[in-house]
Design brief:
Number of domains: 2
Bound molecules: pyridoxal-5'-phosphate
Order of helices and strands: HEHHEHEHEEHEHEEHHHEHEEEH
Mean pLDDT: 96
Strand content: 5-15%
Low-confidence stretches: none
CATH superfamily of the largest domain: Type I PLP-dependent aspartate aminotransferase-like (Major domain)
Number of helices: 12
Largest sheet: 7 strands, mixed
Radius of gyration: 22 Å
Shape: globular
């Protein structure tokens, strides 16, 4: 593997590199796997200390006096990140749970179709596959990378109850042009549901401006908050139209009345919440989202895009075949390398303290704002000695 092209010499927002000391893993690893799990920060660890301290000293009163307030704070932070109102935010156990709750609120008797992308993350498609009477329609991708936004209209009609797809495809990093898809969904009278797990945290997100009715993401990846929770936004105007057929006391209007005779949904998005939330994740998520807000999603996007372009240029120069969008503005911080023995290569890189991931015959590399060009160098150097076999053409 011989590298021919000259790499870029700077990335924008060098001031963001001061955040590196927040993330212990960056001291001893080249961590390029934020699309699987974002790095843990000292801020989140500090919050975890608060969790243990309060539990250890206050017991259940930590709930009533402090944790309920912290949950409110987290909803507020998510709202701030998404230019939304806190009343539009619900905290759910996972993206799957959020989609299950929203999906349970839809009447499929008159319209029984749900239109998805064949490139969507499986959990998103499974939601609808298991619903009795629902027909899942998959919008195909010609190149296995993206879908032209105009194509969606061909698959959406008066039988469509929901159009549900990803903001960014997890296996190619392709950023979908959501407003065009939203327009097609709304013209047919369908609800537009977006899975933004691979978008929020690596770029600015405004679900309302994107045309979504429902937008879901979570702290695990780009939002640096770890596993155990998801964030659900439901457009104010849609909340009361959507009455789930699964429920929990956290979604009840008078939660602390403990009235088992009557149930009324809350009027805000918290109606979709499903039981006691994961408080440790609430804390780590607060740390992560604060950092993303302070670093700034616009600056993060610019930096991630530059790091991505540097990787792309260098990999292509080295003859590595990639599975990413051909237009740079459709690319995000997920670079897929076609490598037949991807699992083996990922393991060899890990031995050299370079952490990336694999999906089938692809090595998946995902730089976040805290990564640097020097780390791209380290990755490139290690890749050349990792015994990679070309998936398509020369490596
Ligand atoms: C796009 C996308 N959606 C959903 C998920 C998983 O959602 P959950 O495990 O919270 O249901 C992932 C990855 O873990 C993902 O990449």
């Amino acid at each position: 593997m011989a590298e021919k092209l000259v790499r870029m010499s700077t990335v924008p927002h060098p001031e963001l590199e001061r955040w590196r000391s927040e993330f212990p893993i960056l001291e001893n690893r080249t961590y390029l796997n934020s699309c699987s799990l974002g790095a843990l920060s000292h801020r989140s660890m500090g919050y975890l200390d608060e969790y243990q301290e309060l539990w250890g000293t206050m017991g259940a009163s930590a709930w009533y006096e402090l944790w309920i307030g912290r949950l409110r704070e987290l909803r507020g932070r998510v709202a701030e990140l998404w230019n939304a109102s806190p009343s539009e935010i619900a905290l759910t156990p996972s993206v799957s749970a959020a989609l299950s709750s929203v999906g349970s609120a839809i009447d499929y008797t008159r319209r029984n179709r749900v239109v998805v992308a064949e490139l969507d993350f499986p959990t998103q498609i499974y939601q609808w596959m298991v619903k009795p009477g629902v027909e899942v329609v998959r919008v195909p991708s010609d190149d296995g990378i993206g879908i032209p936004p105009e194509r969606w209209a061909e698959y959406i009609d008066e039988r469509t109850a929901v159009v549900a797809t990803s903001h960014v495809f997890y296996s190619t990093g392709y950023i979908q042009e959501l407003p065009t898809i939203a327009a097609a969904a709304h013209a047919a009278g369908a609800l537009f549901v977006v899975d933004g797990y691979q978008a929020a945290g690596q770029m600015p997100v405004d679900p309302r401006a994107l045309g979504a009715d429902v937008y879901v993401s979570g702290p695990l990846k780009w939002l640096l908050g770890g596993p155990g929770m998801a964030f659900l936004w439901v457009k104010e105007e849609r909340i009361r139209e959507l009455e789930p057929t699964i429920a929990s006391w956290f979604g009840a209007r008078d939660q602390f009345q403990f009235n088992a005779e009557e149930f009324h949904f809350r009027d805000d998005a918290a109606r979709f919440e499903l039981g006691t939330p994961a408080i440790p994740t609430m804390y780590t998520a607060l740390g992560g989202i604060e950092i993303i807000l302070e670093a700034g999603p616009r600056a993060i996007r610019d930096r991630v895009a530059a790091l991505t372009e540097d990787l792309v240029t260098r990999l292509e120069g080295a003859g590595v075949s990639l599975r990413i969008a051909s237009e740079a503005e459709r690319r995000s911080g997920i670079v897929m390398l076609k490598i037949e023995n991807a699992a083996e290569v990922v393991a060899r890189l890990a031995e050299r303290k370079i952490i990336v991931d694999h999906r089938g015959p692809h090595v998946r590399v995902s730089p976040h704002f805290y990564n640097t060009l020097e780390e791209n160098d380290l990755f490139m150097a290690a890749l050349s000695g990792a015994g990679a076999r070309a998936g398509d053409r020369g490596v």
